[in-house]
Every structure is written in C-alpha cells, then in structure tokens.
Specification:
Elements: H1 6-23, H2 25-32, E1 41-46, E2 50-52, E3 55-57, E4 61-67, E5 70-78, H3 87-100, E6 104-109, E7 132-137, H4 138-152, H5 157-171, H6 187-196, H7 206-228, E8 233-234, H8 238-242, H9 244-258, E9 260-266, E10 274-279, E11 284-292, H10 299-309, E12 318-323, E13 331-334, H11 335-340, E14 353-363, H12 375-391
Parallel strand pairs: 5-6, 6-7
Antiparallel strand pairs: 1-4, 2-3, 4-5, 8-9, 9-10, 10-11, 11-14, 12-13, 12-14
C-alpha cells in the first residue's frame, strides 16, 4: 500500500533490496560475488549525493563490501515497471565511480538482455576502462533470492524470514519488479510476414523480435531454475558470448529461411540440452532433447530401453531413432504407437541405433503480451511441461 508513482516504487524497491542484502549475509554475497566483491562486511546506502561538474546527482544506491584493508564499492541504479535505463544517466554514474575510485556500476531493471553478461543499454566503451558495468534483471534478483532461501539455505532463521519477506514483496504486482511480459511492437508484423513468406533480413523489427526471443529463453530458464533450485542457463557458443551480434545474425537468417526461432537451455544433471523451437508457419512450440542410445543390444532392445524411461510421458510425444552413418531424418513415430510396436523406429535392423530425439509440440500463442493465447506463456508452459513429463524422468 502507499506506492504513489514510479519514483516511490523505485525508492521502495531499492531500499528493500539493499536492506536485505546487508541483513542476510548469504544473499548479499550471492549478489555481489559474481562482480568481484570479496567475502566481507556489506554496507548499503540509498540516494548518496555526488557532484559531477556543476550537477548534483543522486544514484539510487551504493554498496560497499570490506574485508581487512580491501574494499569493493559499486553504485546502483534501479528502474521498476516499464521504465528503461538511459545511456546519459549510466555514463554520469560511471564518471562518478571513476572519480571516486569505485569498482563498478550495477543497474537493475526489468530489461533482460538477449545474451547473459551483455548490458541492455549502449554506453561509451571508453568509460568502462576503469569501472565495470553490470546488469541484473528483477527476474534474476528474485531467482537468486528464492535459490538462496529454498535451496542453498540461510543459516540464521531470522535472516531466512527476512529474505522470505523480500521474495513476497518482489512477487507482488505493485512492487514494479515485473517479469518478462512483452514481445515488443514489431512482434505481430514480423510474425505475419513469416507466415506470408515475405520476411526479409533487413525488415524493420526483425532483429528486435530475435533479441526478445533470446531474452524470453533467459526468462524461461530463470523461472524453471527458481522451481528446481538450480542454475538453468541458455546455451551459447564462446563466439556468441564474445560477439552477441553473431547470435542475432544467425537467428534472423534462420527465421527468414525456415520461419523458426530456436535456442537451447542447459539444466544441470539432465540427459541433454533442451532445444526450444518456435515455428511461426506451423504455429507450434516444440521442445526436444537428444539422448544417446545404449552401445549394446539389438535395435529393439535399445528402443525398449528408451520406452521404459518414458512411462509417464504422453502418447503424443514424438520419438525419432537415428542409426549410425544415417543422413537426414531417422525413423520416427508417436510414443503411443512405439509402445505397441518398437519396430516402428527400426528402418534397417542391420544398422546400429546411435541416438534418439524426443520431442513434444504444443500450440504457439499469437499475442505479444502475457496470459492465455500469448506467445510468452506458450513457450514457458511448453518448457515446463516437457521438463516434468520427459526430462526429469
């Protein structure tokens, strides 16, 4: 109650987060450790005044971690709701940090960059020579809080209760710490152009849709990780991490060519990476995982080995068997049919079965926002269902 506008919302969210970081040792460490802070005493302050030239500026927060003679200091800039970070403001805070010998500037908003570690706002790279710039989405903050409280653990019961209160606060719609909720203004025109077969790589908005798809995969990974109590992450090559533009170009080229956007997600201790594919022309979302077949036994024995592990999976699951040295698609059928007749997956009994591809498809939501019939929810639900029905078993 009592949140009257964006400024009030940001001040409260900042105060709540920084206060809990100082109160709950393990949580404060989980947030600051990835950015180079030592393990030590964490202090936090809100709206500390600084002078830059003839301006009086008030960053939303300041964090200092001290251990012996060593200290690490970061300025914090927070946005809630639909408010976006601005280059000018971030560059001013980078200048303040440099002048004061601080280590970093950390921004927190509802923006999720398409590639982990990338910042959603473009800034002058010269300003990053002596000060690091990091970004946290509110979804990531909430995920870290849940992971710490429910899975990694908090030693002190009172601190655990305090962290639970922060989680309850951030999950409330009025906190402004919203989740990923919009595919952007270009979603519908790009989707329609794909279906009509008229999309070109240089069309307006196609890069934004590709970037938002990657952001959605990150959001879905964080949401699933929050439920499982582990770090679920999108799978990227070293080149894609170093040069995010290559990932964007590949996505754009693929959606123009095949009408599909796809990306992989890694869940620790599972049989393989889960690939999520949105097919605009077929209006489906498909999740699949590749599984190595046993190296011994006849082809039928290997198929039965797989079927036994899919006891609780739906009959509509598509299973494809791939033989050694086979080009193109292998023999495929629905799990319900394979349960009745394993030989359906054996195109040539003389060939050794090497692997299986297990896929589950669901209708793709068409709307750009959140809720029933929306694309975001259809992707998140497809991933959750595939994990529950197939991967976890």
């Amino acid at each position: 109650s009592g949140i009257n506008g964006a400024e009030e919302q940001e001040r409260r969210a900042t105060s709540a987060l920084l206060a809990v970081m100082t109160a709950v040792t393990e949580f404060g460490r989980a947030i600051t450790k990835p950015y180079g802070a030592p393990a030590g005493r964490l202090e936090a302050f809100v709206e500390v005044p600084f002078t830059l030239g003839d301006q009086r500026l008030y960053p939303d927060g300041l964090i200092r971690v001290s251990r012996g003679q060593k200290s690490w200091t970061a300025l914090v800039e927070v946005k809630t709701g639909d408010n976006q970070l601005t280059s000018t403001q971030i560059e001013n805070y980078l200048d303040i940090a440099r002048e004061n010998g601080f280590d970093a500037v950390i921004t927190i908003s509802n923006e999720i960059p398409p590639v982990p570690g990338q910042h959603p706002t473009t800034v002058d790279k010269r300003k990053l020579r002596r000060v690091a710039l990091h970004h946290l989405s509110w979804t990531k903050v909430l995920s870290e809080a849940v992971l710490q409280k429910e899975f990694r653990g908090v030693a002190d019961p009172d601190q655990a209760w305090i962290l639970g209160e922060l989680i309850r606060y951030l999950e409330h719609p009025r906190s402004g710490a919203m989740e990923f909720k919009d595919m952007g203004e270009h979603w519908v025109p790009v989707r329609e152009a794909v279906k009509a077969g008229t999309l070109r790589a240089n069309d307006k908005g196609v890069r934004e849709v590709a970037a938002r798809f990657d952001a959605l995969l990150q959001f879905a990974s964080l949401s699933l990780g929050r439920q499982l109590g582990t770090e679920v992450t999108p799978v990227l090559t070293r080149k894609e991490v170093a040069e995010p533009a290559t990932r964007s170009q590949a996505l754009v080229a693929e959606v123009v060519k095949s009408g599909q956007l796809a990306g992989a997600i890694r869940i620790p201790s599972t049989v393989g990476d889960v690939v999520v594919t949105a097919d605009f022309r077929a209006s489906t979302v498909t999740c699949h995982v590749d599984v190595d077949a046993p190296r011994q036994g006849r082809p039928t024995t290997r198929v039965n080995w797989l079927v036994r592990q899919l006891k609780s999976a739906p009959d509509s699951l598509r299973v494809e068997a791939r033989a050694a040295h086979e080009r193109g698609q292998g023999a495929a059928d629905l799990l319900g049919n394979v349960r009745e007749d394993p030989s359906l997956l054996i195109a040539d009994p003389a060939r050794e079965l090497r692997s299986f591809r297990i896929a589950l498809s669901a209708p793709m939501g068409l709307k750009r926002g959140r809720g029933r019939g929306c694309f975001i929810d259809s992707v998140v639900e497809a991933l959750d269902t595939f994990y529950v029905d197939v991967v976890q078993n």
